[in-house]
Design a protein that fits this description.
Length: 129
């Protein structure tokens, strides 16, 4: 596996495809560039997904995220592009990407993008006493 940034996402077989379960991944060091000023934008990416047949391999995700460091992108565009790439790679039952960008000019931006597989219904939350 490469140790240089690249946009190739690797996957592995879901070890429990018969069960709905949630994978949560936090990426606290996401960086891209402001397309207007070229200044760096920093964000924490929070990925939550219910896998189907595949899961994303974490080192490849790290290198994928690293590949945005020198790219200019609006927060909305980069969040949706990352979600699209992840959905294409793993075809999850459900996926949500929340990008919490650090303050710039007194403004915080949070972008939430979701994907839901056709026909998939989230299981009901069990409330324990």
């Amino acid at each position: 596996m490469s140790t240089k940034p690249n946009k190739s996402l690797e996957t592995f077989a879901n070890p429990m495809p018969e069960r709905d379960y949630t994978i949560r991944i936090e990426v606290p060091e996401f960086t891209c560039l402001c397309p207007k000023t070229g200044q760096p934008d920093f964000a924490t990416l929070n990925l939550e997904y219910v896998p189907d047949a595949l899961c994303v391999e974490l080192k490849s995700l790290k290198l994928y995220v690293w590949a945005f460091r020198e790219e200019g992108a609006f927060h909305e565009a980069v969040t949706n592009a990352i979600l699209d790439d992840l959905v294409k790679a793993v075809a999850p039952r459900f996926m949500r990407l929340t990008a919490e960008f650090n303050v710039r000019g007194g403004i915080y931006t949070t972008v939430v993008a979701e994907h839901r597989q056709d026909g998939w219904q989230a299981p009901e939350m069990v409330q324990l006493p």
